[in-house]
Write a structure and sequence with these properties.
four-stranded antiparallel sheet, 13 helices, 4 strands, elongated
Amino acid sequence: MKWFRKAEDETSSFLIDHPKVKTWSIWIGKFFLEALSAFIFAYGFRAFISPSLACVEEWMRPEPVTSINALISGGASGIAQAIIKFIEMFPGVHLLKMETTLISIFYFVINIPLFLLAWFKISKQFAVFTLINVAFVSLFNQVIPDSWIYEVVNIYEDNLARTIFGGITTGLSSGLALMVGTSSGGIDIISMYISEKKSSSVGQYSVICNSITVLCFVIFSIIGLNTNPLLDASGEALPADFTPTVTMALYTLVYFFVSGKVIDVLNTKNKKQELQIFTTNETLPIVLIRAFPHSCTVVESRGAFTGRRNLMVYMVISRSEKKKAIQLIKAVDKLSFITVIDLNQVYGRFYIKPIE
């Protein structure tokens, strides 16, 4: 690993001496991660959440397919699904064959006002990279071949597996974007805005917003089954059956839970930890407050075994800063004793680096 650390140090030194190259490297890296995040979401959406009619026909062959049992996605894609169900409440309107294309269009359109929110209330760079992510999702959702899905994945009739894998792919997509200070659009923008104001977890706000989307989807679906019933192969109206809709809505709540947990695992920016440092080095507190945008509290104490005077240093940091903090503390005092405590919430003035 020495060669890797040496290469890492040399790269860091080069980028420090070449700020323009560093800036472009960061932007290219973010662009790549946005594309990867978008592909993961689009593929997960098509494979687990709301498969296309062509995929379901391949999975269910030779049985005829008149409807698709879909999970309700979060964010703008979930709102797009709800809009389609709203349109299908009108008699004679069936959009099953056009659903993939309509979701791609609605997904992009719904994100436009959210993009403006991000531009004016969060940051311009955040808004631009979020728009890139949204554009890629719309593109991938439309152009990914059906064969890439039905020839690779076949768990359509296993609702629990679809729920778990759908939650993982959605959470991973959002988490990758949040890790680099951007988002995958939709509810993530609202959640990030609220989270920045309240300095707390992102996932919980996504769950609240998405639950409202699920409720609307279910209501529109139930009304649509009454006013615009499904037709069989001969064109006759099928009896209204609300069970699949309610069942998938319940599975969707599990999907949101899994997705929210994955997001919170990957997004450490707004998670806080308390460092308790026991040291005899009186310069350590000064080094810490110069290295981090946080202050600390120093309490004089005495070791029970040695009877020597020492210091107890208390400091709250973001979880993403923990590795750097511990490395710095050990560099200043190799004999220091450090404990790390997870915090649920911090009240008061705590600085978090703004989103760029």
